[in-house]
Amino acid sequence: MTPIQHNLQQIRERISAAAARCGRDPAEITLLAVSKTKPASAVEEATAAGQLAFGENYVQEGVDKIQALNNSALAWHFIGPLQSNKSRLVAENFAWCHTVDRLKIAARLNEQRPADLPPLNVLIQINISDEQSKSGIMLAALPDLAREIAQLPRLTLRGLMAIPAPEADYQHQLAVCRRMASAFSELKKSYASVDTLSLGMSDDMDAAIEAGTTMVRIGTAIFGARDYGATN
């Protein structure tokens, strides 16, 4: 077993344990392996261990891996900030975009999604900790943006994503995650397509699972420390 495969096993066990503690089925929680700055060979190692969902933060780097691996079994998620001039690459190559936070980007993704591909799955990014340095909308703006996105035929609104501010105290983590889970529950009432809450990383995964997340995003704990000199 390679280090990546060993790490994946440990993360899966941690997800199962966290789910068991709050009476949830671990099968309800998707593990998204964040492969940013890592080579395609690392993704192949993870794929050999049964991991099929991967997240990328940098558009061109992600596209290069998608094209190099050319594996239709893999689901590629774009999880980084998206600039308008990169939207076509996301629309043409990824299955998911987690970071939609304005109608302009949603409209571009809709226009640029190829007709021969299924609609692009999108999540609305919420700035749940009200951090000026973070992307995302305030919760108060969610109903209007969700309504606008739901009308775009080449997109499918699947739910919400957030990156809470770092917080060491578990109860504080849980309180923030529950605010997101509440917003997710309300959104589900209005849109049948909504089924995904992308919330929880290595440091707050347990709290996110207790709150009700359906997708956790784990990178370094699977692939090891990152070399940011390799990004583009």
From TrEMBL:
Isomerase recorded as keyword: no
UniProt superkingdom: Bacteria
Annotated ranges, domain Alanine racemase N-terminal: 7-226
Keyword annotations of the record: Pyridoxal phosphate
Function: Pyridoxal 5'-phosphate (PLP)-binding protein, which is involved in PLP homeostasis.
Claim: Disulfide bond is one of the keywords in the record: no
Subunit composition and interactions: Monomer.
HAMAP family registered for this protein in UniProt: PLP_homeostasis
InterPro entries to which the protein is assigned, alphabetical: Ala_racemase_N (IPR001608), PLP-binding_barrel (IPR029066), PyrdxlP_homeostasis (IPR011078)
Name of the protein in its database record: Pyridoxal phosphate homeostasis protein
Modification N6-(pyridoxal phosphate)lysine, positions: K36
Family: Belongs to the pyridoxal phosphate-binding protein YggS/PROSC family.
Record NCBIfam families: YggS family pyridoxal phosphate-dependent enzyme
